[in-house]
Design brief:
The structure holds two protein chains of two kinds. By secondary structure, chain A is an all-alpha fold. Chain A contains 20 helices and two strands. Chain A has one domain. In chain A, α12 packs antiparallel against α13 and α13 runs antiparallel to α14. The A-B interface holds A 2, 4, 7, 9, 12, 19, 26, 30, 33, 74-75, 77-78, 113, 115, 118-119, 122, 125, 129, 137-138, 141-142, 144-145, 148-149, 151-152, 155-156, 158, 190-191, 193, 208, 211-216 and B 105, 108-109, 111-118, 134, 137-138, 141-146, 149-150, 152-153, 155-157, 159-160, 163-164, 167.
Chain lengths: 486, 200
Amino acid sequence: MHSLAQFDVSQFNAGLTYACPEIFLGLAACAILLLDLLMNDSQRRWIGTLAVVSLLLTALLVVVQPVTGKIVALGGLFELDRMAQVLKAVTLLTVAVVFVYSTDYLRRRAILKAEYYVLGLFATLGAMVLISAASLITLYLGLELMSLCLYAMVAFDRDSGIAAESGIKYFVLGSLASGTLLYGMSIIYGVTGNLELAAIANAVHHGLGDNIGLVFGIAFLIVGVGFKFGAVPFHMWIPDVYVGSPTCVTVFIGTASKLAAFALTMRLLPEALAGSQADWSQMLVVMAVLSMAIGNIVAIAQSNLKRMLAYSTISHVGYVLLGILSGTEQGYQASMFYMISYVLVSAGAFGMILLLARQGFEADKIVDFRGLNARSPWFAGMMAILMFSLAGLPPFIGFWAKLGVIQAVLGVNYTWLAVVAVLFSVVGAFFYLRIVKLMYFDEPTETTPIGGSALMRTVLSMNALLVFGLGVIPGVLLQLCQQALR
Amino acid sequence: MFPTLLFYFFAGTLIAAALGVILARNPVYSALLLVLCFFNSAVIWLLLDAEFLGIVLVLVYVGAVMVLFLFVVMMLDVNLEELRKGLASYWPLAVAVAGFVVFAMINVIMVKHLGGMSMRTAPPLAVNYSNTRELGTALFTQYSYPAQIAAVILLVASVAAIVLTLRRRTGGKPQDIAKQVAVRAKDRVRIVKMASEKRQ
């Protein structure tokens, strides 16, 4: 750890330029919070637009930063590398898309308040801090900032009992996970004497690899990471929170927070604890197999689409872990590709639920999609693309994602794991294809035309077409992930 | 030698009090035992020469958080029987899981010694060393970035608390002091001139 005598103000100030997207987003969120006080109800609908614009501007700031190698700044607590840049840009764009999907939904339920956007922006800020963390301190603070916003957002619809219930569940289990994570971090600090990831990696590399105290700490870290990711056996909160929270918050938890959980895992395990890879990869194997099994099998029995997508998330997390546990560069790249493509598809799938939802009607039952083709052939086609991709059928993006992680585990001679992964993806294909069957071969029970603003319909269509397009030419995203983790 | 004895005394009391927090049947006792926990950990911090942290723990947690907490516990009518209802059916599973975790922990620690944990004592501090000043310097130089994030977390906490609990009631009769002060007699009293009338 740097001693305080070495603190150099000019160097610190120079480092602030690397954090300028974070600073901008934080200021924008505060500005929107204050603007809300000055606005009347008719002006308040512009808040969503302002939030989306500030996200897009932040994304622009992230993208124009010249990043070569790994830049560590702000007293060794902030780090900017290609992975951080890509993940931040994807997170910001995802949240912008989520906000576009949410506006109509919030307005129809009369819960359109500026605080939804403000909390969302602060959660995004937390995710960015987490993604760029170079020390256990910033890692934890970023995670807490994001989680606190999410707890409040889940319970945001105050008149809904089920939202309050799932908010409490999420809060209690999330705090438990944070506590476990902190306990693991304190043990790691005790063993290595360092909070900075690079210094921990160095200490582990030089003779601490087989230290039992270290393994003890890693076990607690993995429990915490498993909770935040929602991997079996730490998945119990996912289905209840997904179903209980307003759909516009579910999509936030299902997309942006997953990217942050991925960054958390990448920073903690491959970056700080690469020297103990043998220990943590065994723990991840158990979690990956259980997640794929339970996620895919239990999803079959669901009649609620949000609950089904919750179990589907659990199973996809299992596949993401496959790439990480392989411990190779190729595996990390495959995991990142998987995570980004999953977020893209999942944003679209929840977007469809938001599109079909009306006043007093959630459209979150699987049967609500019955005969969608008769009501809107275009959006039935879009939903089919998303479902085919989740099922992992070629030429959609989900296929390339699954192929990548399976190749990664084959590369480290985990043949049985690859076989298990393929088997469960076949099981999983059933419930995704069932939705396609309902849309095309069943009679519609609803005849009302599809709502949604023109903007939302356009963005949703672009989202689904992107899933298709990246499936046809996966090289673009693949190359991005390869550059990010090299 | 003496500090070591003190440490074991306070650490022992801390553990006993912590057990009391979760085992006490009366939530008020639990809260009071938690206060005892905080005091003991504050003393352990003092033994480690971290006076500032020790004092802050007592001031903030005991002085503010726990007092508020006691108020809440005393004001809420918690039905303990209701809470304990599930316990009878869950405890075998809970004991099994906890037993397994403890067994695994002991197993891991016994097989290999818990090596590598930094056991060395810190060098003695200079006489005029002030750890308040040192902490302040650290927070505003090296750790100013995390301090800012912590500030944002506090902002979020207050925004979240307000958005979840504030309900604007309609039909309330709030006082407007400015209006009250600016009021004039003719706004309130209407003087009507009329001829006197005979009693009926």
